[in-house]
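Interim report, section 4.2 (structural modelling).
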Amino acid sequence: MTDFKLSCPVPAAPQKTVTLGHGSGGLLMKKLIRDIFLAAFPDPALHDEHDGAILEPCQDKLAFATDSFVIRPIFFPGGDIGSLAVHGTANDLAMCGAQPLYLSCGFILEEGLDLEELEKAARSMARAADEIGLRIVTGDTKVVERGKGDKIYINTAGVGRVITENPILPSRVRPGDAVLLSGDVGAHGAAILSVREGLRFETQLVSDAAHLWPQVRALLESESEIHCLRDLTRGGLAAALNEIAEKSGCAVAVEEELIAIMPEVEGACEMFGLDPLSLACEGRFIAFVANGYQEKALAALKGAGCAAAIIGKVLESPAGEVRLKTHLGVERILDAPSGEALPRIC
Amino acid sequence: MTDFKLSCPVPAAPQKTVTLGHGSGGLLMKKLIRDIFLAAFPDPALHDEHDGAILEPCQDKLAFATDSFVIRPIFFPGGDIGSLAVHGTANDLAMCGAQPLYLSCGFILEEGLDLEELEKAARSMARAADEIGLRIVTGDTKVVERGKGDKIYINTAGVGRVITENPILPSRVRPGDAVLLSGDVGAHGAAILSVREGLRFETQLVSDAAHLWPQVRALLESESEIHCLRDLTRGGLAAALNEIAEKSGCAVAVEEELIAIMPEVEGACEMFGLDPLSLACEGRFIAFVANGYQEKALAALKGAGCAAAIIGKVLESPAGEVRLKTHLGVERILDAPSGEALPRIC
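Predicted structure of the assembly:
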């Protein structure tokens, strides 16, 4: 062995966690962006590394939506913060009757985050976007000190092409409209709860997190008259129904027996005193369909693979009220949840 | 005094801070959105309270950009996180040659945040957007636990209408291009530093934070041939010049004596051993202008009220290198900053 070998500098181990320097705008940040984001996201617009992306002109109206994701834990059964950040905003665009086309992503990273976790989340985003044909075209990265964030927060904003002639809006809901629900409710909230609390069921609870555009497109192309669409996120079915009832000035009546809930979700809710109708979904929506079109709409949703059901209808009054006919045949008011049963569910 | 009076419930004091319930998707969140965001942001698209906003069709190409803002402190001399969140993304659109039209905003609030501070920031956003004619059309609110955020983080994404025929991109920069700088550098970084460190100067250091669209429009309408625009944010002038040099495969040569820096900024930098050329600005940009057009471009910028200057030019080689001719007449390489001199500057 020679002195030369001994005096050779030991090569620095590659950095394995996010540091404040990764948010500096300098060389470290550039390395992070290239090694993780540009490696995961192939879009040429992003690879221009300019301040924004150029979108082709579009003859149609566009929809524009945004969502931030602060879910804990960042990986969960059925998804992760990356796929959720794509699905969430893509679904908001779908609820406007728009095909999701372009996505921006803004990362707020906590100092000390494992770079492998970031890479895994970024790859999951890329896969989710690719499945929908959504282009991740522009982004931003910030780093905050340890204890001023929680691993990863992601904001996405999306631009989509509206494919409907008539606007899809809460204010278009009319008495007589049928209320369709695209599947069973509460699985996302219950899955997150089960991970946080370490619950075990005979079958694992898996989040319903999914992108809804194929289902929504099938519905819109069925030539049913669709007045409003709303995905069930925070506050679940109860919050969504109440928002639409209030904004439309109508009443909504739904039947508990027509609303599918998995037994594991019921079980988790009973254990924690939660209402499955107020539990978040991340892959379910409701549609308000003009009277006479509900069967056609239902068939379209079923054709797209949804376990959809007609769960109720819109009434003239009392304005803003949601009524639930329970399993026992009793009618009660279904209130919007007030506070926070499960924080940071998305 | 009667028993009745004593038994009257004391009216609950109105909530003055953000709670986890404000992020629930329920009634508390709705109240927060209406009392603060809808009260500050007048746009009808936002008041539809739908999952996204509908934008009118546009014959031109669109630009799409995003930025997250994690600045500390959230109020500083010359701006605040609200105005910064509008200017930052509007400026990114301007750098694409696009008139800023629509903005989304995603708030990540820390439990315990003073609602008055949130309201002040939201109003500042609204004012900043109004000044540019930018519509805040869609948004999202999340709440994280105390110690998992830092008061307010804001993401904005923006959509703008491209008014240039030719793309404005780093890859279009050519040897012979003149490098124009729109004003003095480093005031934003120095102002944040002075607040954090409690520095006092004879005149107060004020951030240069501003929207750049009127200046960029004047430049684009001057019929100068503009190859690239870049605003100076994190990493300052040094980072921006290095990025463009690298992406274009050219060299850039600039002269220190042509780069304006306020004496207070120089002073703060000397005290802390910082380089003003690597200090963030939030209201300055550089323009790469084809040879022969630089005087016309300079006149346009001056006409728009900028203390602009031609600070250098693009050379064929060495590819990716930025050279600075110092006050002493010596040439040296101006590197991009590597790590983080001032974290959370925007």
